[in-house]
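Structure ticket #2291
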Amino acid sequence: MDADIETLFQKIRASRSVDEVQTAPTLKSLGITEKSVSLVDKWAIKLTSYGILAAYIPELKKVDKALTAIAVGDIHGNRVIVGNGAKIKISAQSVIKPFLYLYALEMGAPAKSISGLEASSMPFNTDKILRPELQMQVPEHPLNNAGAISSAGVIRKFPEFVGFMRRVTGNPGIGVLDRVFESEFNTNNNNRAIASRLVASGRFKNAKEGEEAYANYTRACSLGLTIGDVLNASLVLSSGGAGMRKKGNIAQMNNIVRVLSAMNTFGLYEQSGLFSLMVSGARANTSKSAVSGLIISINPGVGAFVTYSPLLNVEGNSVYGLYAMIPLNNLLALPGGMRLDSSELNRMLREYNMEESIKVHHKIISLMKDGENSKIFRIDEKILAQLKDA
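Resolution: structure written out below.
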């Protein structure tokens, strides 16, 4: 018996005709128009009655909390972009993590040398590697902070990573937002501690290597991208590595598959499972969020969408973006997928909205007690009053 997997693949594919292979749909064939995307934008804005700017990053506290944007595209290059935040430069923040992981893999780093693959229910800024008694050498997952800093350790010259991102986005002009970088680099002692722990674990050879990984990770998070840039990068993932504006592949398929698999399991951190159920039902929800307010979502072989609104929930996900994902995924997904019916989805949305808004308002009360300016959050007066009276 021949146990070679490629031989088996050839045999089971032999009866498949060319006509049975479906051509990738276009936005037009999926019924995605500026009108339908604008309806999603308005619907998500109505639900975003609460939220907080990324208060722990000084420069992100200055962002206009009223901005929103949605960009949807197919792998043929068709795009629809709506919203008042469509043209501004947004700091990539954690949306860069899949691309840091991809870059590390493309540079030849073995996946096992970067991180494990298993997600946890812990927040994005922690990892079991911070527990020395467990004697772990690499972080648990490539898309939490520890895993992304581990990926950034592969970068030897930061301009080379910028060049990679310029090819991925199709924009030769992208660069670091210096004020964002400085405000993060000088204040994020948690990430600096993670880098130090990766030195102690043996992931990095010495303190200098750990410090460079922390600096390059922070620079990568501080890249300034428009929502159109982020969409182009997302479409590279959706297409299996093909560039949108240049012939030839930017990345290898095996590496793209690893990145998408990681996004399936921890793209929305400890809310990944819940939103996978609400957004895509029985299918994977291939997404990644960022505390700048970006969320990317990939439908492999079909297209991608990106949302932006800087108001966050306590888990660090965009409130607007999470709501917008549900109808946008429905629009971009091919027919026939099993998902929750509208009555069950409405029930879960009402329950989620109440629970999440209460958590956010508890955080807002804490910020108010600390003297934080009200410009950095949006409140629901009824919920705030109930909590204050409780």
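Closing remark: The chain has a mean pLDDT of 93.
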